[in-house]
Write a structure and sequence with these properties.
alpha/beta, about 40% helix, six-stranded parallel beta sheet, four-stranded antiparallel beta sheet, TIM Barrel, Aldehyde Oxidoreductase, domain 3, 2 domains
Length: about 280
């Protein structure tokens, strides 16, 4: 994770929440009054967010003492203590909600991803995410997918070419779209094409793409079509795949399965913060 970017994002999140000041905390607690907060798991899952805890609290109180009791990607159990932070009470209270919100969401994503990997149960096919992320949170959400045992698809529109049905419709064909891309594309950038028919698979192969996506195809169709694809071209299954039918795709032979629900409809893991006065 890019720590500099995380710091800048946390600063913006704190500014949104704190505004001019935390009226409640500043009126109740003395400027240097010390306290402690403990992160506690209220359900089992996979933890993610140690750098958010470490960076978040120190942004508001550079002297805060942060002790992580668990690492990203580790399983956690209900009732388990995850982190202890000591510092100025007013600053702890300013930071805890923003930090907790992020840790809960990231841990929820890591937990869901780990579940998907387990259900798929494949040593060959990898679980990957999509661009269906929360605006502003893509970096931390995709990091959480990695902590859960998944891999990342492209991060945005800028780091890979992905020719989808709308591109094909506007361009006229897969062949024309790929030809236009190749005129100016750098040699380090891969080209992926979305296909929905056997004919489109053949056309994508002929165009020499790097990755072929089988979009909204049943496992039986993929198993049949994948035999047509040369070994030098990667394959991806996407669309209509849920936890309920994911296991059906374990033997179809694709290299990756992309799942939008890992980030766009995930449930935050239930984690709470308990406070204690120090001294």
């Amino acid at each position: 994770m890019n720590k500099l970017k995380l710091k800048l994002q946390l600063e913006q999140f704190f500014l949104e929440d704190i505004g001019e000041r935390d009226v409640t905390s500043e009126l109740i607690f003395a400027e240097k009054e010390q306290g402690e907060v403990v992160f506690l798991a209220k359900e089992s899952g996979i933890f993610c967010g140690e750098e958010v805890i470490r960076t978040g609290f120190k942004l508001l109180d550079e002297n805060a003492e942060v002790r992580l009791l668990i690492s990203d990607g580790d399983p956690l159990e209900k009732g388990q203590s995850l982190a202890i932070v000591k510092g100025t009470i007013s600053e702890l209270l300013k930071a805890e909600r923003v930090v907790l919100n992020l840790v809960q969401r990231m841990s929820g994503i890591a937990t869901k991803t780990r579940e998907a990997v387990r259900i798929l149960g494949s040593s060959h096919t990898k679980i990957v995410d999509t661009r269906k992320t929360t605006p502003g949170l893509r970096m931390v959400e995709k990091y959480a997918v990695r902590c859960g045992g998944g891999l990342n698809h492209r991060f945005g529109l800028y780091d890979a070419v992905m020719i989808k049905d709308n591109h094909i419709s506007f361009a006229g064909s897969i062949t024309k779209a790929v030809e236009k891309v190749r005129v100016s594309l750098g040699h380090m950038v891969k080209i992926e094409v979305e296909t929905e028919t056997r004919e489109e698979v053949f056309e994508a192969i002929e165009a020499g793409v790097d990755v072929i996506m089988f979009d909204n195809r049943k496992p039986e169709e993929i198993s049949e079509w994948i035999s047509l694809v040369p070994k030098g071209i990667m394959t991806e299954a996407s669309g209509g795949i849920t936890l309920d039918n994911l296991a059906d795709y374990s033997d179809c032979g694709v290299d990756v399965i992309s799942l939008g629900f890992l980030t766009h409809t995930v449930k935050a893991l239930d984690i709470s913060v308990k406070v204690h006065v120090v001294g």
